[in-house]
Design brief:
The chain is of the alpha/beta class. It has helices at 22-30, 48-59, 94-97, 107-114, 133-141, 173-184, 199-210, 242-255, 270-279, 317-324, 344-350, 380-392, 403-408, 412-417, and strands at 3-7, 13-17, 38-44, 63-72, 75-83, 91-92, 116-120, 145-149, 152-156, 165-167, 189-193, 214-216, 222-226, 234-237, 258-262, 281-285, 289-294, 304-305, 330-334, 354-358, 361-365, 374-375, 396-399, 422-426. The strands form 6 sheets. The protein has a 4-stranded mixed sheet with strand order 22-23-1-24. It has a 4-stranded mixed sheet with strand order 2-15-17-16. The chain has a 4-stranded mixed sheet with strand order 4-5-3-14, with helices on one face. A hairpin with a 5-residue loop joins β12 and β13. It is elongated. The chain starts with a strand and ends with a strand. Bound molecules: ligand EPZ. Residues 23, 26, 102, 128, 130-135, 170, 172-175, 196, 198, 200, 314-315, 337-338, 380-381, 408 line the site of ligand EPZ.
């Protein structure tokens, strides 16, 4: 298994192009199941998760053509053409779904277009139990008969779906997206109340509108969808990855460097920018993206709590904790979205961090320095937080289980090395 070797202590300085957002790309790709026409997507990141979803879609009958790297949004992103002329198979098997939970996003489109679907239950994952009950409740409200049998979700709507009011008791990105996609082809009006407002949901909704869907309230917590008979093809460029941008902002801050994040959008990172500002890291909007620079001296300890958008993102919690581990003063970090998302803590402590977890909160007492160590993590954001800690640490670190990073960070070593990091992959 590949490892990453990092020799810490060098400031990260230069330009970093921000790739298309993984968590938008996956959903927009799933939307190709809703039409017989071609969906042409650009600015797709080159990531293992994208390949996994392409494999899921291919076995449902989607023809997929990759058109190489074509410039989009100022840097190279891949172009993918997806055509689901016919749905040849409505079953998403365990072997594919267990590799990536986002595969459950084929459920809504398949039921809406083909009238039925059998999708493996994704099961638990490293960051928590992550049920799909809200996805199922939403689709049931639209008239699907849903049954759980043999580890699979069986959903039927032989006469088609109908519009309904779907009120979510808690904010779920995936459930909002599944119901949104299904509602585009349902008869009549659907209202999704307490919808997720994450920019990735907005990106999906905007692509659906280009395909002919009628959606109002994009970017708000109430989405109103008028179902249409059919959707058509469209061209869409995936929105830049706000979590990748936030991660590299921390890389600059934790090493005392200065970076330009090309293509990053300030409106997707308002809370993060505000929190970094309080910690002593200036993030300024420029014509090309965001400029990040740490003010003189150490960053300061700041308390945060993760929340649905526009709150502080859970997908940046581990990276922010790495920054706080070398801050002046203490920081209380509270995770409210997932119940088991502190797996990076023991590994950071092995690098010299002082962190105590009490339930959903972690008390981080900033240290003047971290020391390199051999570490590993069990999910994507935890892994990258260890890379960040290693960039700031004295001496050499080895980060194991690099396949987590390959799921979500396109060209991580190349992007950091171009900004002066001493980082290499060991095969
Ligand atoms: C998406 O996951 C992202 N994944 C996650 O990013 C991200 O952390 C999360 O949203 C929150 O922003 C993708 O987009 C592929 P949720 P999702 O449904 O949709 C509970 C990364 O590192 N819940 O908003 O699965 C759930 O357990 C990943 O890139 C239910 O109880 O997240 C969680 O506590 C990790 N029942 C909360 O809601 C349900 O039916 C929010 O989950 C669905 C969710």
């Amino acid at each position: 298994m590949d490892k990453i070797r990092i020799r810490g202590g060098r400031p990260i300085e230069g330009e970093i192009p921000i790739s298309g957002a993984k968590n938008a790309a996956l959903k927009v790709m799933a939307a190709s199941l809703l039409t017989a026409d071609t969906l042409r997507l650009s600015n797709l990141p080159h990531l293992a998760d994208i390949t996994t979803l392409a494999n899921v879609l291919a076995q449902h009958g989607v023809e997929i053509h990759m058109n190489g790297a074509v410039g989009d949004g100022g840097h190279a992103g891949r172009v993918l053409e997806l055509t689901a002329r016919e749905i040849t198979n409505t079953r998403a098997p365990y072997d594919l779904v267990r590799k990536m939970r986002a595969s459950v996003l084929v459920l809504g489109p398949l039921v809406a277009r083909a009238g039925h679907a059998e999708v493996s239950l994704p099961g638990g994952c490293a960051i928590g139990t992550r049920p799909v009950d809200l996805h199922l409740q939403g689709l049931s409200a639209l008239g699907a008969e849903v049954e759980l049998r043999d580890g699979y979700i069986h959903a039927h709507a032989p006469k088609g779906l109908h519009g309904a009011e779907v009120v979510f008791p808690l904010v779920s990105v995936g459930a909002t997206e599944n119901v949104l996609m299904a509602a585009t082809l349902a008869k009549g009006e659907t209202r999704i109340v307490n919808a997720a407002r994450e920019p990735e949901v907005g990106d999906l909704a905007e692509c659906l509108v280009k395909m002919g869907a009628r959606i109002e309230g994009i970017g708000t917590d109430t989405l109103t969808i008028q179902g249409v008979e059919r959707l058509g093809g469209a061209e869409h460029a995936i929105t830049p990855d706000r979590i990748e941008a936030g991660t590299y902002a921390v890389a600059a801050a934790i090493t005392g460097g200065e970076v330009d994040l090309i293509g990053a959008r300030a409106d997707h990172l308002r809370t993060t920018i505000e929190v970094l500002g309080r910690a002593g890291v200036a993030v300024v909007e420029t014509e090309r993206g965001l400029h990040v620079a740490r003010a003189n001296g150490r960053v300061k300890g700041v308390d945060i709590m993760t929340e649905p958008f526009p709150g502080f993102p859970t997908d940046l919690q581990a990276q922010f904790m790495a920054l706080m581990s070398v801050a002046e003063g203490a920081s209380m970090i509270t995770e409210t979205i997932f119940e088991n998302r502190f797996m990076h803590v023991p590994e950071m402590c092995r690098m010299g961090a002082n962190i105590n977890v009490h339930g959903a909160s972690a008390m981080v007492r900033g240290q003047t320095k971290l020391a390199g160590a051999e570490v590993m993590a069990t999910d994507l954001r935890a892994s990258v937080s260890l890379v960040l800690a290693a960039l700031a640490a004295e001496g050499e670190s080895i980060v194991n289980r690099v396949y987590h990073l390959d799921r979500g960070y396109e060209g991580l070593e190349a992007k950091l090395a171009a900004c002066g990091a001493e980082i290499e992959r060991i095969k």
